[in-house]
């Protein structure tokens, strides 16, 4: 749990697929909230968290099943407004004396329409302007008897108790999901709820910045902090924030593993050292990384070598910084949620994303994670607030192992040079056509295959490359970007004409799943 001076809202997670969206909607309303799995929510926890309001999420279980999830009964005497959504509504009704049934004929999946009762309540301000409201349903169980003290304020064909409330106690319960896109007016419902609960809407990036700067100063005191700086959005924003708090007590280590894009090292180091006055160690470890990778062609072996070298290198530089007691990382809120995820069963390893993951334990350092509470778009907003240039904030994500995973099979310096040139032209094309910000990530992969071509009446036998560009929200799923044929033709021509060593160009139209974004 994080200490903050803001009004706080507690979301109790029963494992809905869309619980994170509740948090998104609330953050958009400048309300500070945290998601906690129901198993962790004891009354002691609630008192310590001191929420101004509570939301119960949806979930896959059925309250009719013995042993299914519950909230502590005393939470209903805690005296703050509560909103129950779907499973959360059912659990509220059940625990307060209503009845929930599993039965045929009452399931609703997808779009439904709710009509209002005669009495309009504050929760529904801005709703029912046309006497009905589109909502998104996803339930098999239904409430058959509402709990004492509740009244009905909205009905759908299969959910006679679609919206109910106990106005005296400020308990609200809805069968549908107001957090999803397909409940078009859902955000208004949250807005009304937090207004009823008296939230000041004080969660802004300006306030966050001030508060975090204070917290970092107190935590660090006169000790030193090191930060693994990649030039990516997360570590850049974390470094800028910590620098504002403790200035020279921060040292950043930027590892140049020889697997960076064209001009990347100069841009990153230049930006932080010259424009932001940060102490940046430019660790040129090209020989070390490329040496160890020589002759290796298995994707996981390559990743493991790089992961280990990152740690070795980091350790080497940290040892040289006297008094370093803290390690800063750019962990984001989705990373935190994933690690305490409700349905966190054993999943298969598709690939090892680790970079500098094992560092803190090995080095005996304390962690500083000033972005732990933020979503990626909030991190970008904070970066703007801190004065980082847009060119840095809007950057596409770039993986820690860099070009190594865009060069399937064995890596050679020659292939890396060809790849860097082709990639630079591709990105130049994307920028020139004004497409950079519409794309989540774009890059070239050099393929481990050579093909025959004819150029200037001569025979060529050179590498083929693949262009990749995807749209995505979080990198977990992705679709290929629908470039025009004209754009693709022009770009292929430029790459083949301008890059010595490539004579064929393809466009990768695989989505994720079944593909992954990177080629390895
Ligand atoms: N070349 C590098 N030098 C130093 N640290 C690195 C390097 N590459 C990656 N890291 C570390 O690994 C972490 C995770 O990398 P990741 O790519 O997920 O985040 P990011 O680079 O900060 O942001 P983005 O997701 O926008 O690329 C980084 O925050 C950084 O601490
Ligand atoms: O920091 C990182 N270290 C890694 O080892 C790594 N592997 C993939 N990626 C990035 O993660 C996102 C999803 O990539 P995949 O679909 O290829 O798994 C995409 O944004 C990838 O660029 C990495 N990032
Ligand atoms: N989406 C939900 O919360 C579903 C709740 C419960 N599992 C049902 O089917 O009714
Ligand atoms: Mg990165």
TrEMBL record:
<feature type="active site">
    <location>
        <position position="179"/>
    </location>
</feature>
<dbReference type="GO" id="GO:0005524">
    <property type="term" value="F:ATP binding"/>
</dbReference>
<feature type="domain" description="GMPS ATP-PPase">
    <location>
        <begin position="203"/>
        <end position="395"/>
    </location>
</feature>
<dbReference type="InterPro" id="IPR017926">
    <property type="entry name" value="GATASE"/>
</dbReference>
<feature type="active site" description="Nucleophile">
    <location>
        <position position="86"/>
    </location>
</feature>
<dbReference type="InterPro" id="IPR001674">
    <property type="entry name" value="GMP_synth_C"/>
</dbReference>
<dbReference type="Pfam" id="PF02540">
    <property type="entry name" value="NAD_synthase"/>
</dbReference>
<comment type="pathway">
    <text>Purine metabolism; GMP biosynthesis; GMP from XMP (L-Gln route): step 1/1.</text>
</comment>
<keyword id="KW-0067">ATP-binding</keyword>
<dbReference type="InterPro" id="IPR029062">
    <property type="entry name" value="Class_I_gatase-like"/>
</dbReference>
<comment type="function">
    <text>Catalyzes the synthesis of GMP from XMP.</text>
</comment>
<dbReference type="GO" id="GO:0005829">
    <property type="term" value="C:cytosol"/>
</dbReference>
<keyword id="KW-0658">Purine biosynthesis</keyword>
<dbReference type="InterPro" id="IPR014729">
    <property type="entry name" value="Rossmann-like_a/b/a_fold"/>
</dbReference>
<keyword id="KW-0332">GMP biosynthesis</keyword>
<dbReference type="InterPro" id="IPR022310">
    <property type="entry name" value="NAD/GMP_synthase"/>
</dbReference>
<dbReference type="InterPro" id="IPR004739">
    <property type="entry name" value="GMP_synth_GATase"/>
</dbReference>
<feature type="binding site">
    <location>
        <begin position="230"/>
        <end position="236"/>
    </location>
    <ligand>
        <name>ATP</name>
    </ligand>
</feature>
<dbReference type="InterPro" id="IPR022955">
    <property type="entry name" value="GMP_synthase"/>
</dbReference>
<dbReference type="Pfam" id="PF00117">
    <property type="entry name" value="GATase"/>
</dbReference>
<keyword id="KW-0436">Ligase</keyword>
<comment type="subunit">
    <text>Homodimer.</text>
</comment>
<keyword id="KW-0315">Glutamine amidotransferase</keyword>
<dbReference type="Pfam" id="PF00958">
    <property type="entry name" value="GMP_synt_C"/>
</dbReference>
<feature type="active site">
    <location>
        <position position="177"/>
    </location>
</feature>
<dbReference type="InterPro" id="IPR025777">
    <property type="entry name" value="GMPS_ATP_PPase_dom"/>
</dbReference>
<keyword id="KW-0547">Nucleotide-binding</keyword>
<protein>
    <recommendedName>
        <fullName>GMP synthase [glutamine-hydrolyzing]</fullName>
        <ecNumber>6.3.5.2</ecNumber>
    </recommendedName>
</protein>
<dbReference type="GO" id="GO:0003921">
    <property type="term" value="F:GMP synthase activity"/>
</dbReference>
